[in-house]
Write a structure and sequence with these properties.
With 104 residues, this protein is an alpha+beta fold. The chain is 15% helix and 11% strand. It has a 3-stranded antiparallel beta sheet with strand order 1-3-2, covered by helices on one side.
């Protein structure tokens, strides 16, 4: 019997979803990559993205065993809190960083 998927809190529903495919240097934009190739790495892993977001950037995040439809064989998705409850960016350094790879 399959277990029920973990429910997201209302707060977590507002987090940004980051899949490894978004920053895979080996892929084209049409294949799912979302950021400039100069900022990408080959075969990124969700747990590495999670570690960077949480430990280095100090962002609140959650690692999930989900997969992107274009990359369904690679499991892993990271939910990252970019904005607080009031809609303000949680870290001033994120406002101007060229490393932000998502639409805020």
């Amino acid at each position: 019997m399959e277990s029920e998927p973990e429910k997201l809190t209302e707060e977590e529903k507002k987090y940004v979803k980051v899949y490894p495919i978004y920053m895979d240097k080996t892929l084209k934009y049409s294949e799912g990559r979302k950021i400039n190739i100069e900022l990408c790495v080959e075969n990124p892993r969700a747990k590495d993205i999670f570690r960077v977001c949480e430990e280095i950037l100090g962002l609140k995040c959650k690692l999930e065993p989900k997969s992107h439809p274009k990359d369904w064989q690679k499991r892993g998705r990271v939910l990252v809190q970019i904005k607080d409850k009031e809609g303000k960016i949680v870290q001033d350094s994120l406002k101007t960083s060229k490393y932000i790879f998502i639409n805020i």
